[in-house]
Design goal:
8-stranded mixed sheet, alpha+beta
Amino acid sequence: MSAPFPSVRAVRRPLPHALREAACIPRVRYGEAMRSTDDHERPAPGGAIDTSRASGVEPTVARDGPHDAVPAERASLPDSTHIGRVFLRCRDLPACVAFWRDALGLEVLERSAETAFLGAGGRALVGLIAAPDARSAGRAPGLYHVALLLPDRASLGAFLAHAVRTRVALQGASDHGVSEAIYLADPEGNGIEVYRDRPREAWPRRGERVAMGTGPLDGEGLLAEAGEVVPFRAPAGTSVGHVHLRVADAAAAAARYRDDLGMDVTQADFPGARFLSAGGYHHHVGVNEWETRGAPARQPHTLGLAWFEVVVPDDGAREAAEARLRAAWEEREHALFVDADGIGLRLVGDRP
């Protein structure tokens, strides 16, 4: 068995005491607790969960801008559309591989001196690319977090128990109404969310759209469902549920993902943020401008997010989406489409 990542240390005390400690994971309030990723300035963990607002609480409503107007005729994507693999450039590939394996429980599926693919149930979720000489992206647009979706609440409880026992540095936790989520970052500051969804019929809504909020996470309830505490391994069925991006203009970015790619806006009343999806999911893509409003585009080959995949299983729909992106975005090698923020995506078919 490989040696664990150096910062993942065993807790030499009974788990019940650690369960009480888990109640002090700070709550993530979008735009406050979570900070930038690519500039390596995530806040240190600490503080207590804020219980002053209930789960699913309505955020301050932001006024629609010119980019929020929905065209009378617009493109769409099949309901089966979802996020595929996310690719990150890493200065220290071995350290990042060890973290994603030992702290997050992903399996190393392929490994070379230049790349590593990690996933669950034999399916790759994250591609790590060695880039020892790459520059930091600073506060340019890029990744806010990549979100690993676990198949059930017991799995999220098992991850939390593992994180508490091994002292993985957690940065926050929240109940968003549609989901329960835990936040952390890898050794190079790439933001990570680990979450589970509630059933769709239980999602809070405001009219036809979802109404995600930020409330305190029931850590003790999660841990009660964890069962036997063993080294956590991400179960089969784990996927990349969504990506959350930092952009220069949230409304303009959302318009690109809506009009050019074909996603639907699912929530637009977080000030400085928008959320989009296909098939009625709460969000496959989130965008925010909280720290990057007006920032210049991301430069190629910088550390952090390299690109992410959007899986469109239907060939005709994928080809139509590629044609729209080709007309509106910059196309680089191997059908990599890059938007005005310098963020790249590839459209792919479903993988076995």
